[in-house]
Amino acid sequence: PAGRTVVRFEFLDAPQTMRRWWLVMEAGEVDLCQSDPGHEEDLFIRVDLHTMTEVWLGQLPFKTALRDGRIEAIGDRQLERTLTSWLRLSVFQEVAAAG
Fold it and tell me: Is the pTM of this model over 0.85?
C-alpha cells in the first residue's frame, strides 16, 4: 500500500509474549515488529495460529476465513479487501496446493 501502513496481528492462541505482531510497510520496505512500533494502526487482524497458517500456505483463502469468522479484521476496509494482493503467501503455497 502507498504511504506508511501498519497492520497489527493478534494470534489468539499464542503465548501471551508472542501474541501481538506488527507489520510496518513504507516505501517498499517491510518491518516485522514484536513490540508496538508507536504508529497508528491501519488494520487489526485477530486470528488463531492454525487458521493463519492455512491462509499463509494457500490452503484456505483469506476471504473465506474472513467470511466464516475465523479471521476478524478491523480497520481500513480497502486494506482488508486488498490484503491478499500485498500480503505475500508462503513460497511453499504452490507445493501445498499441488498436494
Answer: no
Helices (H), the chain: 49-56, 62-67, 77-86, 93-98
- What is residue 3's DSSP assignment? S
Q: Provide the pLDDT for residue 92.
A: 65
End-to-end CA distance of the chain: 32
Strand order in the sheet with 43-47: 29-33, 20-26, 5-11, 43-47, 71-75
> Contacts for 47-50 with beta carbons within 8 Å, 24 or more apart?
47/9, 47/10, 47/11, 47/12, 47/71, 47/72, 48/11, 48/12, 48/13, 49/11, 49/13, 49/14, 50/13
Q: Are 16 and 36 in contact (CB under 8 A)?
A: no
The string of pLDDT tens digits covering residues 46-70 is 999 999 999 888 889 888 999 999 9
